[in-house]
Specification:
2 domains; 4 strands
């Protein structure tokens, strides 16, 4: 005898296949969404890490620029101090030059015939005021000063007779040009 199955078994299989396919697509979609969320999280954390590195690098750059500014300041201060030390060294070297010059000039003065009243210096000019016994002694002293090493040239500004304590003497003023370096 022939058996006829009146139950719709093919439709049941189709429904099962369809349900299985829907669950596979839904599962795949969920896995895909989870994968996208994971990738998004990784990229966000990577971007945050890079932003933190950039911020740290900028802070370090600011710190280094400040130190560089301090270094430039110290270089300027060092240059200023070296310049001041150079000036002090020059002053120290030249400090005794006027004393030596005046001492040497005093050695040139004839003790019994010339008396110096005033010596003034302004820049490279030296003015010598004094009193001599007569014109010949004053002229001899002028020649002696012309041969003095620190003096470049000597000019007679004035020479007048003056009576001091009843004695007629010769008042004189010399203008001298000093050589450079003395």
């Amino acid at each position: 005898m022939i058996k006829i199955n009146l139950l719709p078994y093919r439709e049941k299989k189709k429904k099962e296949n369809f349900a299985r396919q829907v669950s596979i697509v839904a599962g795949s979609f969920i896995v895909f969404i989870l994968l996208l969320v994971f990738v998004q999280f990784k990229f966000t954390s990577y971007v945050d890490s890079l932003e933190n590195q950039v911020k740290e690098a900028e802070e370090k750059l600011v710190s280094l620029n400040k130190k560089l500014g301090d270094l430039d300041k110290f270089k300027r201060e060092k240059k200023d101090l070296e310049q001041k030390l150079g000036v002090i060294k020059t002053l120290e070297e030249n400090r005794l030059a006027p004393v030596r010059t005046l001492d040497d000039l005093a050695q040139l003065v004839p003790p019994q015939s010339i008396w110096l009243v005033r010596i003034t210096q302004k820049n490279d000019r030296l003015t010598i005021e004094g009193i001599g016994l007569d014109n010949i002694v004053v002229a001899g002293f002028m020649k002696t000063i012309e041969n003095f090493a620190p003096i470049k040239s000597v000019d007679l500004v004035s020479s007048k007779k003056a009576e001091i304590a009843g004695i007629t003497l010769q008042k004189f003023i010399f203008s001298c040009v000093l050589k450079k370096g003395f």
